[in-house]
Amino acid sequence: MHPVTPPSRPQQRAELRGALRANSEALLAYFERRVSPREDAADLLGDTMLHVWRRRRDLPPGDATQQRMWLFTIAGRVLANHRRSSRRRLALTERLRTHLTDAGAVPDPTEANAVRDAVLRLPPRHREIVTLVHWDGFTLAEAAEVLGLNQSTARSRYAAARTKLKNALMEPSRT
Amino acid sequence: MDLDELLERSGPPICTRGHRLEVELRRLVRDSETTAGRRRRSVRLGLAGVAVAGVLGLAPVASAAGLLPGWATWSTTQGSTCELQLDVGLRRDGDGELITETFTDAEQRATYAAAREFLTAFDYDSVDRDAAIAEWQAQEAHIRAGQRPGDRQPALQGDDLEVTAVLTQVVNRLRDHLHGRGLDIRAIMVSAGNRCTR
């Protein structure tokens, strides 16, 4: 067996640069869907990038899927911190904030609101796995890894979440 | 339409994707690489670089004095009444700034208990406002001097300056207090908030 040679520093940087370029839109969307006002997504993305650059030695080498999950795991931590506290504004992301303020939003399908409300009413442990799968495009196995769950727990949470959602969506409106 | 399809379409709207956003994101990737390469403090004007989670904004404070540790009402020289709060929590996996040190459960619990005790008994009147502001401004000037003009965050002023300087003093004293007991403030989460009304 050949010993595994760790990537050189320039290789690590190039690899992380590539991973960030490939995933920055998806990471931005991840934050956009979870924070209000939407412009805060810019700061959270900036924060995530600063974290990952400082932790670049932990980037899984060579595997784009693993790299994506690693980036989203860090993004999840940044988001968790954001929810506990208010954020500082980063000069780094001022222009991106402006872009998010000015840019129009992708049209919202008319039936989306009721389903989104039902998703947002799920308990957090159920909600996060549903949103990772259906809003961010992870497989259930990948979502489990991002959330640090074993596959069996993830499957049962996901199934429970779907049952709750089905029930919620079948309930007649009480208004 | 089945549930999967409904869920796929239920995501909150995001901004329109296009060339301009793509350019902006590429710039951010490049700039973050440069910024992260500099000293950490050069992009962080938080409270003294400890495990403090985002301190400079307006976290909700909803309690009466004495019920929460580190709670106080503070009248600023600008005439505002500010609610200040410092609170501590156990660091769960992934909380706070990413640190390389690890702390045992016993260390975390001991630090948490000592910090709560300190903050509950803390007398905010013991903080010298002018000295706190002078100290903060010296630190801030040092940090800003190390930043490129485009990266510089604006210097704090008015109520923001005063409450941040005061909270920084309290955190510094908390750190010293814990250190004196052989404990490390990074073992716990420290969060701060303020809300000022005039």
The H-and-E topology of chain A, N to C, reads as HHHHHHHH
Largest sheet of chain A: none
Low-confidence stretches of chain B: 39-68
Largest interface: A-B, 61 and 56 residues
Cα(first) to Cα(last) distance of chain B is: 53 Å
Quickly count the helices of chain B.
5
Which percent range fits the helix content of chain A?
55-70%
Provide the residue-averaged pLDDT of chain A.
Answer: 82
Gyration radius from CA atoms of chain B, angstroms: 20 Å
Tell me the quaternary state: heterodimer
Strand order of the main beta sheet of chain B, please?
1-4-3-2
Structural class assignment of chain B: alpha+beta
The helicity of chain B comes to 40-55%
Structural class of chain A: mainly alpha
Strand content of chain A: under 5%
Major sheet of chain B: size, sense and barrel closure? Answer: 4 strands, mixed
User: What is the total number of structural domains of chain A?
Assistant: 2
Distance between the termini of chain A: 67 Å
Note poorly predicted spans of chain A: none
**Strand content range of chain B:** 5-15%
Count of DSSP strands of chain A: 0
Keywords (chain B): Membrane, Transmembrane, Transmembrane helix
Transmembrane segments (chain B): 45-72
Question: What do you see in this structure?
Answer:
The complex is a heterodimer of chains A (175) and B (198). Chain A is mainly α and 175 residues long. In chain A, 67% of the residues lie in helices and 0% in strands. The N and C termini of chain A lie far apart (67 Å). Helices cover 41% and strands 14% of the residues of chain B. Chain B is built from 5 helices and 4 strands; from the N terminus they run ααβββαααβ. Chain B has a 4-stranded mixed β-sheet with strand order 1-4-3-2. Classes of the chains: A mainly alpha (175), B alpha+beta (198). Chain B: Keywords: Membrane, Transmembrane, Transmembrane helix. Chain B: The chain crosses the membrane at residues 45-72.
